[in-house]
Amino acid sequence: MRFFEERRRLVEELKSEGVIRSKLVEEAFLHIPREEFVPEHLRSYAYVDTPLPIGYGQTISAPHMVAIMTEELEAQPGDVVLEIGTGSGYQAAILAYIVSKGHGHVYTIEIVKELTKRAINNFAKAVPELLDYTTFVIGDGSKGLEIFAPYDKIIVTAAAPNIPEPLIKQLKPGGRLVIPVGNRWSQVLLIVDKRRDGAIRIRESVPCVFVPLVGEYGWSKESEYLY
Ligand code: SAH
To answer: What is the pLDDT along the chain (227 residues), one digit of tens a residue?
Structure first.
């Protein structure tokens, strides 16, 4: 009850800030219990609009950033979505809620095996009904996820040095990629549209700070020290 009230208050706040704009994103935020996706000892901070540590040096993004990215992605019921950087599984749950309205699917890939295990547990506890609409993969998502491509939408929840070429390839014509690109400490959220004729259009959304995307098309361990 307490969390439900706090969740409602946060959603109202995000709406009044103009961060949550669509009915579907609002519904998703009201439906997914963020307290189930943060570590036990941080549960009382679940509805403070801030990132929180989830272990392995990683974080669950702040609610306003999840809302901005979800709105920018324009995920629709029925979409097939790829998320890179499962982390806690919270963003994946928000997306699964939306796409499940039209029997779509979310593929979410994470490079830290233990985080995938936790994300699956979080889902099983919080939103078991969405497990049918979600596939968890362990691996290097900087290369995308070729086997289930192409995707209507791709969302990267870690900071990339550049737009990885495979992600553009794995996007359907008419599809959209949302990705933070920049240096190690500050990035800009890029909205990349692949038009029906194959042309690529890139728009800058908001400044942001994400943990680094590692792997083949991400930051190498050595290059991190340069920034
Ligand atoms: N979307 C998450 C937050 C992600 S934090 C949530 O809702 O909680 C970024 C995540 O990206 C981290 O868990 C990190 O381990 C993961 N990551 C970094 N590089 C990756 C890569 N190449 N492939 C897949 N996951 C990666």
So the answer is: 689 999 999 999 999 999 999 999 999 999 999 999 999 999 999 999 999 999 999 999 999 999 999 999 999 999 999 999 999 999 999 999 999 999 999 999 999 999 999 999 999 999 999 999 999 999 999 999 999 999 999 999 999 999 999 999 999 999 999 999 999 899 999 999 999 999 999 999 999 999 999 999 999 865 554 44
Ligand 1 close to Cβ of residue 140 (< 6 A): yes
- Is the CB of 67 within 6 Å of ligand 1? no
Residue 91, both tokens: 């963003």
pTM of the predicted structure, to 2 decimals: 0.97
- Other CB atoms within a 10 A radius of the CB of residue 173 amount to 11
How does strand 80-84 pair with strand 105-110? parallel
CB of 164 closer than 6 A to ligand 1?
A: no
Residue 169 CA, ligand 1 centroid: distance in Å: 21
The alpha carbon of 36 and the centre of ligand 1 are apart by a number of angstroms equal to: 18
- Out of 3.40.50.150, 3.40.350.10, 3.30.70.260, 3.40.50.2300, the CATH code matching 2-226 is 3.40.50.150
Q: Does residue 44 carry a catalytic annotation?
A: no
Domain boundaries, the chain: 2-226
Cα of 157 from ligand 1 centre, angstroms: 6
Which numbered atom of ligand 1 lies nearest the CA of 92? 7
